Structure formats: C-alpha cells, structure tokens
C-alpha cells in the first residue's frame, strides 16, 4: 500500500516533467508574429516625420483666399480638396501613434510568457533609426508635388516599402520607438540552439552575460528586459 502511495506521486512528477519538456520544445520552435493592424500602425509611426512634413508643406500652400471667401457648398468643396492631403497625413499620424502605443502595451503584457536567457553577444543598433530616416523618409519628402499623379507615385512607392518593411527586421527600426526604446542585435543560447535576432527593450544598456527576459514577436524579433541575478 505504501509502495502504491509513493509511486503515484512519482508518476505525476514524471508526467509533469514530460509536459514541461514538451512545452519548452514548442516554445523553441514556435515563432510568434505581429498580426492584424500591428505591422500597419508600426509602419505609419515610422513615417510620422514624413507625414508631418507633408502636412505642414501642403497646409502652407493653401491659398488664403478660402479663408476670406463666403461660406457656401462650393467653398467647402474647395477647402476639402485643398486640405485633403494634410487631413490624410494627420489621420495617419494619429492612427500610427495610438496604434503603436496599444501594440506595445499588448506586447509588454505578454512578455512574462517569454523565457529567461543569457545574452552571449550583443551590439547596439540605436544609430539605425537615423539611417532609416535618411534612406526611407527624407527621400520621400515632396519637392514639387503639384498634381495627383505625383501623389499616386508617392503612394505606390510607400506601398512597396510597406510590403518590404513588414517582412524584414525594419519593423523595429523606428524613429518614434527609438525615443523610448533601445534596439540591440543579440545572440543567445536557447535550449542548446544558438539564436540571434533584434531585441527591443526599455533598457538603455544590455551587456554580455546578463540575464534577459525575452518574448518572441516575429522572425528573429524579440521584446524583453534585463533581469536581476
């Protein structure tokens, strides 16, 4: 009878260990991803400087005659047409900012589902947002967009960049995110598998051999924070 009492807890522990090993294996092989509107709002926030520049430039080019004109349906239509581009830019700014805030609140709420690992190699990437602005933002600043064809060209190019942006590590290289977060190129041992990727964290500095709680948010993309030893 005593033998039976002892063996049953042993079996329970053995089953629990197998379950934990199975869960750990799934955690190593499963890749999470930002879905729905998350990549879209991150893209909008990354181009927030561009939208601000376009809105200011187009707003300043609107003729002041509309302000002094009599308010009627024709005037309202002309005002709507004149301010259409600035209004679209303002909508993109608001959606990008609010969406990015909610996206990272959601990520921060799930980071505890991640794993604790030791960073083997790390290098800072906080200079990448500057290169991103120079390459992907300033190059789109309108010089003399005076027709709808010019804006259709701009939209077409932005759609191409968006397609590439959401499929690359540029998803975390964001000038707006860099105001609050730091990004690192990391290399770590994940259950015997050497992995590397981009880590975004509120911590300003992360060194080698430090413990970090990381949560996978995409292919070779992680969110995390330093853990005290």
Summarize the structure.
This protein has 229 residues and is of the alpha+beta class.
Features:
five-stranded mixed beta barrel, elongated, 229 residues, 18% strand, 52% helix, alpha+beta
Strand content: 15-25%
Measure the end-to-end span.
45 Å
Helix content: 40-55%
H-E string:
HHHHHHEHHEEEE
- The overall average pLDDT, rounded, is 75
Largest sheet at a glance?
5 strands, mixed, barrel
- Are there runs of 5+ residues with pLDDT below 50, and where? 1-29
Name the strands of the widest sheet in spatial order: 1-2-3-5-4
Radius of gyration: 25 Å
Quantity of strands, as a count: 5
Can you put this structure into words, describing what you see?
The chain is an alpha+beta fold and 229 residues long. It is 52% helix and 18% strand. The chain has 8 helices and 5 strands. A 5-stranded mixed beta barrel has the order 1-2-3-5-4. A hairpin with a 2-residue loop joins strand 4 and strand 5. Helix 2 packs across helix 6 and helix 3 packs antiparallel against helix 6.
SSE layout:
Blueprint lengths: L1 H28 L8 H9 L1 H14 L3 H4 L4 H10 L1 H27 L4 E10 L3 H10 L10 H18 L16 E9 L2 E9 L9 E8 L2 E6 L3
Helix pairs in contact: 2-6, 3-6
């Amino acid at each position: 009878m005593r033998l039976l009492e002892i063996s049953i807890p042993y079996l329970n522990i053995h089953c629990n260990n197998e379950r934990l090993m199975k869960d750990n294996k799934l955690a190593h092989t499963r890749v999470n991803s930002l879905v729905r509107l998350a990549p879209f709002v991150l893209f909008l926030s990354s181009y927030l400087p561009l939208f601000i520049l376009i809105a200011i430039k187009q707003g300043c080019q609107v003729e002041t005659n509309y302000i002094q004109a009599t308010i009627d349906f024709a005037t309202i239509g002309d005002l709507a047409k004149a301010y259409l581009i600035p209004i679209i830019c303002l909508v993109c700014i608001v959606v990008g900012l609010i969406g990015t805030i909610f996206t990272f609140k959601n990520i921060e709420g799930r980071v505890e589902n991640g794993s604790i690992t030791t960073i083997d190699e790390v290098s800072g990437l906080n200079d990448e947002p500057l290169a991103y602005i120079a390459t992907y933002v300033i190059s789109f600043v309108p010089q003399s967009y005076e027709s709808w064809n010019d804006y259709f060209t701009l939209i077409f190019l932005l759609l191409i960049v968006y397609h590439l942006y959401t499929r690359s590590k540029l998803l975390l290289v964001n000038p707006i995110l860099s105001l609050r977060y730091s990004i690192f190129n990391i290399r770590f041992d994940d259950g015997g598998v050497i992995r590397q990727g981009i880590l975004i964290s509120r911590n300003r500095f992360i060194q080698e051999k430090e413990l970090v709680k990381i949560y996978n948010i995409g292919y070779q993309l992680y969110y995390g924070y330093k853990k005290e030893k």
